[in-house]
Amino acid sequence: MSQAARSRLSILALALVVCALAIRELRVVPDAFAASRDAASSAAAVPAEAVSVPSLLVAGREVRVGDTAAQAVASLASATLQSASDDGGVAGRRETRVYDLEGTHVTVVLEPFEVRGTLRVAGIYLN
Predict the structure, then answer these.
(1) What is the pLDDT at residue 1?
(2) Which residues pair with 99 in a beta bridge?
């Protein structure tokens, strides 16, 4: 067998192995993609035109991403709660709360940052 034939055979074998691995990976959904599907269900609760902010000042009290749910709810006591919904997140229960703050809709997403962790502010959205 000539050198050129061996080279072509090696390239063909490599291509077959790469194709087989690609097909196997496409059949199994990696955890990263499964998590993004869960996040997409929560994203449906947040309006598309909403703008994410790292913190919000309400009646002289600041709500920040990372605050505990109790701190955030206490700080938002002067705002009118319009709706609250629960669903499952990657690390546990996720709660989405929509407030009316002087004509502005504020959506606060509360979820644990670790498995069996306490609920924390994961996102603040204005629309």
Answers:
(1) 74
(2) 81, 106
Cβ atoms of residues 99 and 105 within 8 Å = yes
Asked whether the beta carbons of 98 and 105 are under 8 A apart, the reply is: yes
What tokens appear for 92 in the block? Answer: 């546990």
Query: Does the predicted model carry a pTM greater than 0.85?
Result: no
Which domain, by its residues, includes 102? 3-126
Rounded to 10 degrees, the C-alpha dihedral 71/72/73/76 comes to 120
Given the structure tokens 């194709």, which residue do they identify? 19
User: Kind and range of the H or E element at 51?
Assistant: strand 51-53
How far apart CA 113 and CA 104 sit, in angstroms, is 27
CA distances (Å), 67 to each of 58, 70, 73, 88, 125, in order? 14, 8, 10, 20, 15
The bridge status of strand 119-126 relative to strand 104-112 is antiparallel
Give the pLDDT score at 5.
87
Instruction: Work out how many domains the chain is built from and give that number.
Output: 1
